[in-house]
Amino acid sequence: MKLVFFDIDGTLAHGLEVPASTQSAIKQLRKNGHKVLICTGRAISYVKKYFAQYADGYIAFNGRYGEMNGKVLYDHPVSPEKIHEIAQVLREEGAGFAFYNLDHGYFEGSDEDFVMMSKIWEPGFLVRSKQEKIEAYSCDVIYQSKVQMDHIALRLKDSCLFNDHGAHPSCDTTFYGIDKGTALQAMAKVLNVPIEDTYAFGDGCNDVVMMKACGHGIAMGNGVDDVKKAAEYITDSIDQEGIRKGLEHYELI
Predict the structure, then answer these.
(1) 136: DSSP letter
(2) Strand-pair category, 170-175 with 160-164
(3) What PANTHER family does this protein's entry cite (predicted)?
């Protein structure tokens, strides 16, 4: 049995659309006895709502929460102090944002952005709130321009890394200390699977650590340069059956 980890945005899916070739490849991968884990910056509620049919387990919030077969394997929220620090910078920069825990998303920003973000959640999950004395796992930022987002990233470069969602002007956040790479290794250890039997597919900056942590890192053809440099193998893009071709390259399907 191998463990195969997949990022969502730009790797497994465009928005909510999973290519037909990817769907069939993952179905065959699981049929062959391997375990599929989604490894994403998205909130666990989002992942389960839209992608549960493709996975045996999940790493959500860029490594801060992990589940396998319905069992929570680790749980590492961000401190309220760090949340306050990030929120202050985002307010000063005029960006919309939402902090997520397991129960809710706490949103600040324009009515337009709130409506846009609310569409992807169950009714009542996303609420307007300036409450910061909470434990949260991740933060989404809604920006107005690339210049604005670049400036935010520069101000917070010592605290976190931002990864763009691509489908709309928003990004998720990796808080330093715990990331997709540390989570991947923790999951493999708990499941008693050697690192050399782990594979990871990704395309974004927050997937670089995953490429380095796993036994075999596979970068998507549409991925950023840094993730391609860190990968063992570069497959085709998401739109050119990259997942299927990558799995075939390693004879997993």
Answers:
(1) B
(2) antiparallel
(3) HAD SUPERFAMILY HYDROLASE-LIKE, TYPE 3, PHOSPHOSERINE PHOSPHATASE
d(CA 6, CA 182): 15
Q: Looking up tokens 């071709």, which residue turns up?
A: 245
Q: Do domains 3-76+178-249 and 80-175 have the same CATH topology?
A: no
3-class secondary-structure state, position 162: strand
- For 69, list phi and psi in degrees, rounded to 5: 50, 40
Topology given in CATH for the domain delimited by 3-76+178-249: Rossmann fold (3.40.50)
The domain spans of the chain are 3-76+178-249, 80-175
Could you tell me the two tokens for 191?
Answer: 């499941």
Secondary structure of residue 43 in the 3-state scheme:
coil
Domain spanning 80-175, CATH class: alpha beta
The answer, as to whether pTM is greater than 0.85, is yes
